[in-house]
Amino acid sequence: MNGDLTYVPGFSDLKLARDRAIVEVRLGRLRASEVPSLPYNLRWSRCQTKKGEPDNRKVIRAGNRGYKPVTSADVGKGKLLKELPPGASIAADGTIRQGDTQLMIATAERAARNEFNKRAKTESATKGAEAGFAAALESLGARPSKSAAPFIQKEVGPHIRAELTPKPKAEGK
User: Which distant-in-sequence residues (6+ apart) come within 8 Å of 22 by Cβ?
Assistant: First the structure.
């Protein structure tokens, strides 16, 4: 829970145990079949604007992806949540809120389908970008080497500070 603003008692612990098991698989200490699966997925969906005004666009988007609101009826001994997440409260409509977000739940099957769809879209967009790059090279009369197809590589560089009016350099330095 240390510093994790998305921490949900019980679920976050299951997720951490699963992540640790995946590390053990990568280290060769555990078989992939021994990794525990999550029975459901919880996420916090934004339900307000930055100004604090109601805005359910992200809640609606999550609903379109199979997520449903977690309510006060889901909190208590033997229920989905044994207790409210730190800093969370129950809103007038019974939903669990934390700041400008609302807690939502989806079945494991639906969360897996969402992840598959997201990966498929990413792969499709990447292939489209690579094809576009190849087409751009061709339009310039250039061709990639037979053994080197165009590809996209994202690298995070150092933070760059841009100024509209740069400060003059001190003399003698």
Answer: 35
Could you read off the pLDDT of 139-168 as tens digits, one per residue?
877 766 666 655 556 666 665 555 455 556
Nearest to 126 by CA among 150, 146, 109: 150
Whether 97 and 47 have beta carbons less than 8 Å apart is answered as yes
Closest CA to 151 of 132, 171, 172, 170: 132
Say if residues 13 and 82 touch (Cβ distance below 8 Å): no
**pLDDT per residue over 73-129, tens digit each?**
999 999 999 999 999 999 999 999 999 999 999 999 999 999 999 988 888 888 777
Instruction: Give the rounded distance of the alpha carbon of 101 from its chain centre.
Output: 15
Q: How far apart are CA 127 and CA 59, in angstroms?
A: 31
What is the value of pTM for the model shown? Answer: 0.70
- Concatenated DSSP letters of 45-82: EE-B-TTS-B--HHHHHHHHTT-EE-BGGGBSTTSSBS
- Determine contact, residues 30/17, Cβ cutoff 8 Å: no
Q: How far apart are CA 140 and CA 13, in angstroms?
A: 54
Predicted confidence at residue 127, as pLDDT, reads 79
